[in-house]
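User: Second chain of the day. Same drill as before.
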Amino acid sequence: MRATTAFNKMLVVPGADVVGVTFSPEGIVVDLRRRARRLTCPCGWSTRAVYDRTTRRWRGLDLGSARLFLQAEIRRLDCRSCGRVRTETVPWARPAARFTRDFEDLVAWLAQHTDKTTVTRLLRTSWETVAAIVVRVVAEHVDSCRLEDLYRIGVDEVSYRKGHRYLTVVADHDRDGAVVWAGEGRDHAVLGKFYDLLGEHGCTQLEAVSLDMGGAYQKATSSKAPQARQCVDPFHVVKLANEAIDRARRWAWNVERATNPTSKRPWGRPPKGSTPPPNKPRWVKHTRWALLKDPDALNDNQLEVLDTLRRERSVLYRCWQLKEGLRDLYRLRRPNDAAVHLDWWLAWACRCRIPSFVTLSKTIRANRDRILAAVELGLSNSKLEGLNSKIRLINHRGYGHHTATALFAMIYLCCGGITVQLPTER
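Assistant: Same format as last time:
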């Protein structure tokens, strides 16, 4: 069997035939001859007129320990649609690439599952090459179709670099939390760019948007999609309640320090069998986890702390009751009872005379409709929080990214629902 015949059957290069094989010190060079005579621009316009010709190499998948290069004549054309001279497309490689589609798909698949250092060592490439390949593969798979049929979305921020550098991430709740858009920054203008890209028709299709209690995303959503119901993430509501109970605990600790100062320890070793003097401020200080943890997860000592606070009619026990009363909003069996329950809690909190919870009640009252929408629709940013952890892992796995564009490509590749087909699966 001739070498060209063997490589034709082994490589199966689309749109070309193998006409020569050369074994060089840098690897195996396979010469190709195109079958099509018409030139096709990356924009789709085609012609038979040739502007000029040159020879180019594309690196393919390695054959054993030897590098493989595909070499063929490539032409340029004067595209009337683009209004400039461009290089024709070839079936075995993406536009402006120096690698075959099989090689780039393998790189992208490995980038989804491992770090770039492993990819560069396995395939004998550089970091810059892997980053550029990921950008090209993502650009081919991610198109405007991902923004179609969006009805329920979630918006959240994630820190990706020191110096308060944030990304705004938008995910689709109906597609299992797949990322549909990401932008640099966390103000209303950044989210406004997403709504502008979505278009007026896409904005009118939105039914619900889950977000945090910040004013930036609320402002952008209210101006671009006023008909969509905004749902405040339950995590942020409970977090505010925990912060309020923590402020009340610190206030009680300061009161105990002022009224029951700790006596100084006498000189020498204490007598055998003697009990240490009571230290009420320290005891109040260590009630934190008994007040913040889920009641079903409390141990015996923490349950005893709550029982002591109840018997002493401590203000901290009332704080715990207020916190659990707010959490009961998300435990209701019938979501239609949420409005009555929340109004009851607001009436209780605003009259409790505990400063931190009075302030909390004002915040909850200002976001009442958005909180009730989250309960009635059953939406939360839990999928977004999971995506944030995955994005941080992607950023850490790459030891940081020099530009946000490179990080966006990795986010779309790993979290955007992109399925890269390996050459062995075709």
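The mean pLDDT is 90.

User: Great, on to the next one.
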